[in-house]
């Protein structure tokens, strides 16, 4: 027997209009289902955003804390640079590789080891050479007498006293038939056969006949070749576009190459057709770099003074410095008296001459010295790394290897650390609304669906409640409806309370946690030095003149040529 729950309204004394409690309860259930489903969908999107936000913040904080640390090297550095994320190190006259975290990823077990290039490195056991990948796996067995790094997909290898080329799978692409073979540059490689030099392409085809006494790699489509004691230039089809008539010749840079016709003649710059467009009356001329060429002229006291000329041959910056270097990244190091600073291309001294030593800018940073210690500055002259280290090397791939006493360290690019710190600060300053805001069109649709479901549920509830008010509802039914309303309110408040509790807990933990990134925000972090050359003050790789000389300045202003 099924009881029919019904009641009469005042307007219909005859009981024609019946309101079923089951229907009311069903409507209320549908309302709750729609409301909480919409609310749950909205909260699901929010919590996904919150999880991503927290993960990103934790990742940045961890990255900053790790990058700010000096990673001590347990092995002696060999190359002092990172290539493909690895650097060569040595132990007991054997060589291996470490990553940027200082971890030895390839054991020190090879008698010879070359830098990584294109994912592989040439290694040898003292008799034979092969290639390993960045995991240390031997990809190409130790079967060659000698080997060079990969370049443009091919590597030069020596077998039975002759040189040829292999690909990354170890297949011999060009037979070993040359006396000497250089790496591929711009699609061509210089090779020597029967005492003469020429060029081949990646198929082994002879593009430039072996008829020169020496051949250099291609730069900007032209290569320096030598016949007897004279130098000229060939193009990629083998045409001698500039005859071998110069006593010295440099690679092309910024569309010009520096040459001298005789020992006693002056320097001049020629274009790609061999036309002498700039005659230089200076004693020493360097190749063009970023539109300007470094030149040296003796003053009335026969002392070297450095300046710069432009591509029209005009004196862009007067010869007034006791020492200078070529432009890199828009700035050039100069020396006046015993102090060094940096100028821009207009000749303006943008960083004052207050350092005992300096190096060129690399990756937005430059190494400067005070006394016997080196630190790091940015292009505004801000000291990012204190004067601390004794030997340093330029940054490569965002890292530098430095030494302090008998210890070696790996340092991260302080500019990169500053960028991460800035990103972390911006994350910490994000508002609640910006965190939960939709990030894509799909999320906007989800939010709209959630809002629509909640709205439909509320409308359904309002209509049901109005019907209950109009009807002559028995007390027990009113109690049931009131119980459902109270249950809904309790569940809703409980839901909000749980969410608020976790949100407060998260905010409390965030505000009280001492993030290494924030803790060291105002500190000056330890810095980077540059690998020393024979000069304690000059740039590590001293500029090379058009005569092939290397001029190395010392702190007292004197110069040594080697």
- How much helix is in the residues? 10-25%
**Biggest sheet descriptor:** 4 strands, antiparallel
User: Radius of gyration in whole Å, from Cα?
Assistant: 37 Å
What coarse outline follows from CA principal-axis ratios? elongated
Question: Could you tell me the strand content as a percent range?
Answer: 35-45%
Strand order of the largest sheet: 2-3-4-5
Query: Could you tell me the mean pLDDT?
Result: 79
Distance between termini?
Answer: 114 Å
- Find the structural class using helix and strand composition: alpha+beta
How many strands in all?
Answer: 41
Annotation field: number of helices: 6
Low-pLDDT regions: 1-18, 508-562
InterPro entries: WG_beta_rep (IPR032774)
Keywords: Membrane, Transmembrane, Transmembrane helix
Organism: Prevotella fusca JCM 17724
Pfam family, one: WG_beta_rep
